[in-house]
Each structure stands twice: as C-alpha cells, then as structure tokens.
Write a structure and sequence with these properties.
heterodimer; A: mainly beta; six-stranded mixed β-sheet; five-stranded antiparallel β-sheet; B: mainly beta; seven-stranded mixed β-sheet; globular
C-alpha cells in the first residue's frame, strides 16, 4: 500500500460545480497535512494547511479525519482557473519528512 | 521577502557533461529538499539537507548525483556525466522547520540533455 493515496482522476467538471478530492495516508503518526496545487509545467504551490478541526479559505474547505487517516479538499463554485493537479502532502516522522500523493488532476470546463 | 530562488531556469547539456543546479532557500529557512519530476509524472523525492548535512538521500541515484548545502551559499544539486534520462524538471523546496511548516517551492530548473 502506498503511503499517500489520492483519487486517480482526472476530474472534468463544469464551471460552478462543487468538487471533492480525497486522500488517505498510512502513517498514523503523521502530524501535518497540506494541500498543494500544481499547474502544468509549474512548481507546486501551497493551497492550504489542514487542521484537525477543519478549515476554510474562501471557496476551499479542508477536512481531516485522524481516526480514518483521511483528508479531503472541497472546492465550491469552481472556476476555470482552478484547473490544476491537486497534491495531498503528509508529514512523515522519518528522513524526507514529507510524502506527496500522486495528485488528482482537475479540469474545469466552460 | 524573496521566495525560493532556483537557477538557471533552463539548462541544456550534452550527454557526458556536468549539470549544476542552484537553490537559495527562503530567508530564515534551513531545510532544503530536492525533487525531480518527469513529464506527466509526479514529484519524486531526491534528497533532504540541512546546513552542511545530508539528512536523507534515499531518493538520489547511487551514481553521478550529489547534493550539498554549505554553510554559506546556495544548495547545489550536481549531476555528472548527464544522460538523456536525466532530462526533467528539478524542484527545490525549503521549510522553516522539519515537520510542521509547509514546503515552499522554487520555480524549478528544466534540464534538457541532448
């Protein structure tokens, strides 16, 4: 089993749709969780950290379920500019410190 | 506050030459990570360094690749005797501490080996 798994995608949704991404992780000792977005041929950019109580930033809501070792990202009222690959990142208490999921690609269609 | 700076943005090397990729972390960050990304693939961890120390190099190929983060100056990823398979985007990231602070990425160096 991979350490961090994400929905395989791609997701193709119309503008204005609500879309949810799921991520599961295997290391129960993980402490920090993040969502990044990566545009084609660009560097990953931090979208938001994920806190235990859940957190919201505008149209984006992140949830953490430690018991199920599951993280989610919800995007409401999706825009064309939301088209990107969304990466789930989980901290690891060894060596490299961060484990990246494979990413889920989102295309928002006009 | 400048972000993570990588240079060059694009680097072209012939097979057998050496490639040197530089990364200056964000101000105040002492943790540096290097990742490689092939087209249409995910990020692959290569190496994690702190000042003057390699903490984890489990993702580095055993030969031709080396990395350093000296006390003064940028972190360097060095690839000797490049081959076509080394063509990729190489991203550097830095963080404030080892676990709780997120990674901040540079805009990458795109290496093309001809």
């Amino acid at each position: 089993r991979k350490e961090v798994e994400q929905d395989p995608g791609p997701f193709n949704v119309p503008e204005g749709a609500t879309v949810a991404f799921n991520c599961t992780y295997s290391n129960s000792a993980s402490q920090s969780f993040f969502w990044y977005r990566q545009d084609c041929r660009k560097e990953p950019k931090l979208l938001m950290s994920v806190y235990s109580s859940g957190n919201e930033d505008g149209r984006f809501t992140a949830q953490l379920n430690r018991a199920s070792q599951y993280i989610s990202l919800l995007i409401r009222d999706s825009k064309l500019s939301d088209s990107a690959t969304y990466l789930c990142v989980v901290s690891a208490n060894y060596g490299q410190n961060f484990v990246f999921g494979p990413g889920t690609r989102l295309s928002v269609l006009p | 506050n400048a972000g993570v700076m990588q240079n060059p943005r694009h680097l072209v090397r012939r097979r057998g030459q050496e490639a040197r990729l530089r990364c200056s972390p964000m101000k105040g960050h002492s943790h540096v990570y290097w990742y490689r990304q092939l087209p249409e693939e995910g990020l692959k961890f290569m190496v994690y360094l702190q000042k003057e120390n390699i903490i984890d190099e489990s993702g580095m190929p055993k030969e031709r690749f080396s990395a350093e983060f000296p006390k003064e100056g940028p972190s360097i990823l060095r690839i000797q005797q490049v081959v076509r398979g080394d063509s990729a985007a190489y991203f550097c990231a830095s963080s404030l501490d080892s676990l709780n602070s997120p990674l901040h990425f540079g805009n990458g160096t795109r290496l093309t080996v001809t």
